[in-house]
Amino acid sequence: MLGLRRKAMIAPSGQPIDHDAETMRLQLLGDPNLMAQIEQAQPEFASAARNDPARFAELLRQTRSQQQAAELAAKEELSLLNADPFDVEAQRKIEERIRQQAVLDNMEHAIEYSPESFGRVTMLYIDAEVNGTKVKAFVDSGAQQTISE
């Protein structure tokens, strides 16, 4: 039987690098727009992506761990809320969760189907002449989709 193993990548610090983290780091480095967004939102991530692959992998592991812990805590809280269906306070909290989820769903729908609502739209007007009359003309590309950068 033949077993295949990936060759472990080693950071300058001597620590092995997680392949998924390294792939993500290289994608960040290759996309200046994404890197600019990360720089604004998570400067420590951006710095680690540029200068310290092992630190980037560690930050990514920490973030994943925090997300998993938050998901587990939310599931446990929901289980406790569902334990007594006649508890008025628990029902209020469940109702609030449902309302918050509806808001998030509506936001996702809006971002998916109306992305122009979340960005700046620049209209193009030009000077034109129609039948000898000077007018300002609006240029319509006829695009059926919004292209966001």
UniProtKB/TrEMBL annotation:
Any one GO MF annotation of this record: aspartic-type endopeptidase activity
Top-rank taxon, per record: Eukaryota
Keywords, sorted A to Z: Aspartyl protease, Hydrolase, Protease
GO biological process: proteolysis
Entry keyword Lyase: no
Keyword Hydrolase: yes
Pfam name, any one: Asp_protease
InterPro entries reported in the protein's UniProt record: Peptidase_aspartic_DDI1-type, Peptidase_aspartic_dom_sf
Chain ranges of the Aspartic peptidase DDI1-type domain: 115-147
Record-stated family: Belongs to the DDI1 family.
Protein name per its UniProtKB record: Aspartic peptidase DDI1-type domain-containing protein
